[in-house]
Amino acid sequence: MNEFPAGPLAWVNGSDAPEKSAINLGFMALSDCASVVVAATQGFAQPYGLTLNLKRQSSWANLRDKLVSGELDAAHSLYGLIYAVHLGIGGVAATDMAVLMGLNQNGQSINLSHGLQTRGVTGPEALDQHVHQSRAKLTFAQTFPTGTHAMWLYYWLASQGIHPLRDVDSVVVPPPQMIAHLQAGRIDGFCVGEPWSASAVRQDLGFTIATTQTIWPDHPEKVLGCTRAFVEQYPNAARALVMAILEASRFIEQSAENRQSTAQLLSAREYLDAPLDCIQPRLLGDYADGLGNRWQDPHALRFHGAGEVNLPYLSDGMWFMTQFRRWGLLRDDPDYLGVARQVQQLELYREAASTVGVDHSGETMRSSQLIDGKIWDGSDPVGYARSFKLHAMTDSSALLASR
User: Where would you find this protein in the cell (predicted)?
Assistant: First the structure.
């Protein structure tokens, strides 16, 4: 990898110098922390006067608590985690939060156990039939109650006619622990980021029944999150941090060789602590599902996409709130657009992107068609949240149907 990438080495000499030079940067052991790790270790931060101290976390709940307390300055975060804290749901007091940039799109998976596979449950229809005919509820794991993996799992199950809060049980398991839980028979399936889905397939502990990019091609996933207080106290440092990670994101996607070297870096004990052959294939878009199918995924994990990945779209933040409403995590409709405008740091992001030559001209709303045929474009979030056949709403209020 690069020792020191080309960059404005004199940038820190003026009034834009970061107010804080050492940043404590949290991450979870997932392949999509790549741009954060690359920025911190491969010379992308130093030109901007920053030292990034990487802090691996054991669970998303720990990461959340340390962000709120200030022990972490910023972190590789679940989109829904940042919004849940901002809205004060999920058992924590509301704290003003900020999304500085998108870190990646796509690249998560839903896996089922080897036990279900041996019973012939290898597709959505068989799963639907099994769920509605079996006396015992299946147990699915996701990584955080308001996180992306919970939302993808719920959305996918509902699209197959399975109510995620009534027809199955849902439990929270930190990403690196998924394999042990599956192996011990404590769960029947999970939704998680790589490399843990690929690892389960390689260990013959089950198969991938769906990738999250089949639910929503180029869906939002992890973000660079922090408190609003951090942005307000250290605006230059926040902007410099975005610049460093933008450059790292662009570097990863410049060539297949860069992706391969990134996979090698991530395999180290202090980052993912996982075999290279569990990380590299899916990082390069090479998927094998454990059922004999192999393909090059057109919507695999991506970190930059010429800036398309990194722009903190208002509609992306709004979508997670519509799902919180759908599943009873919010009792009333928030001001979807107003909240997103508070959280998404569009002005700061555009300043950073402009400085490092990344296109930031995209619209703040984007339109996508999801697996159930519904179009999400942010234009009518209240109507969208109410439009689903399967939900946890009762009349005009929602119930907290699942803990």
Answer: Endomembrane system
